[in-house]
Amino acid sequence: MKTKFRQHGRRVWRVLLQIIAALFLTTVAWVLIYRWLAPPATWLMLDRRAHAPIGRGYHGIREDDRRISYNFKTLDEVSPQVPLALVAAEDQRFLLHRGFDVKAIQQAAKRNFEGGKQLVGGSTISQQVAKNVFLWSGRSYVRKAAEAYFTILIEALWSKRRIMEMYLSVAEMGDCTFGVEAASQRYFHKSAAKLTASEAALLAGVLPNPLRFRAGNPGPVARAKQRRVQRNMRRLGGISYVKALLEE
Questions:
Q1: pLDDT in tens, 63-111
Q2: CA separation for the pair 177, 226 (Å, rounded)
Q3: What are the residue ranges spanned by the domains of the chain?
Q4: How far apart are CA 162 and CA 155, in angstroms?
Q5: Fold of the domain built from segment(s) 38-49+68-247
Q6: d(Cα 193, Cα 77) in Å, to the nearest integer?
Q7: Which residues partner with 174 through β-bridges?
Q8: Adjacency order of strands within the sheet including 172-174
């Protein structure tokens, strides 16, 4: 009886190891494919295509036409002000960390523990790319663990340049509008290659809540965020701060 139980246990353990290995190899292959190819879509794009987002204070929601605007661009195809603005707005230590900014996480946890009115996140650009590109919408411990796993993978298998290209191309910047090229065409009627520092700061400033703090017809809060990003861009030293990223 004990021998049969042990044999059964070994078979179960062997199957579990095979499943884990298959999942690992599949995710590695998935990440490697996107190292060179643009994602055809993300889970959030598919969700937005199927359903209009519902939330308090949302602006510019399309009730009927749910077609997605998305055009993947490399760093060579956008204004250098774009990556600078995104770093200044979202992750000023992007070029220094390996996917996780421990200092930012500690500061966010401290502010949340002290009872801020609004929960503050400490996600890096790498974590947001992992979430936006590979994961489903929602919040759970399982999803957070998967986010950390994919963050480690993309930091190991992609360059910082590729991570930034992915972020600026797939980040939601309005209802049914993904990436700086689609946002630039929608709000400024021109290519992302021609964005000024002020325009790039406005697009970056409304992240990560582009449905509430709209870039089209921006309100006072969006303008305040834009000015804060512009100050950070100047404080970082301008385009020279992301020179290494642009030259990779």
A1: 888 899 999 999 999 999 999 999 999 999 999 988 888 876 767 556 6
A2: 19
A3: 1-37, 38-49+68-247
A4: 10
A5: Penicillin binding protein transpeptidase fold (1.10.3810)
A6: 6
A7: 177
A8: 69-70, 177-178, 172-174
